[in-house]
Task: structure prediction
Amino acid sequence: MIYNASGLVQDGIGATRTYAIDDPIALPGEESHAVGRVELVRTMSGILVRAHLQLLEPGSCSRCLKPLEQKLEIDFEEEFQSRTDPVTGEPNEELEADSFIVDEQNQLDLTEAVRQYREVTLEIAPLCRPNCLGLCPRCGGDRNLNACDCENDAVDSRWEKLAGLANSLNEGKEQ
Result:
């Protein structure tokens, strides 16, 4: 998502450009599809980027591992600072270390900003549906497709002694 802003820089402070987006976007680790709009506004020290995007993210259900596609809404406003003064061409000495950058060719790359906002927006444990039953921890069967008899028989080995104590206490009450 690279934009050439040289015309915008020449227009002066307050100039705007708006772009519609419907493109694949290569983010580290994933290929997503972005739809939305981006507005670029010339500021005194660079370019203000206003973005409203929807990302379609491939993924898998955290319970049953079926493939799914998440729809993420990303809205942000970030100022991209110019490395050089657009009027004089001198290096920008007020450039912040962790700021987004408009390079020497007046191009700005939105990929890192989109990646950062995507990471904040992603669900930690996405589900294919709210009532997904997931996989059986013993046999690995999909409990959404058919019931599993494993879970009633199994006692976690870490709880065996406690289960034995509970059984002996219950036997004492029955007598």
User: Anything to note?
Assistant: Residues 2-121 form one domain. The beta strands are 2-4, 16-27, 30-42, 46-60, 67-82, 100-102, 107-109. The chain has a mean pLDDT of 84.
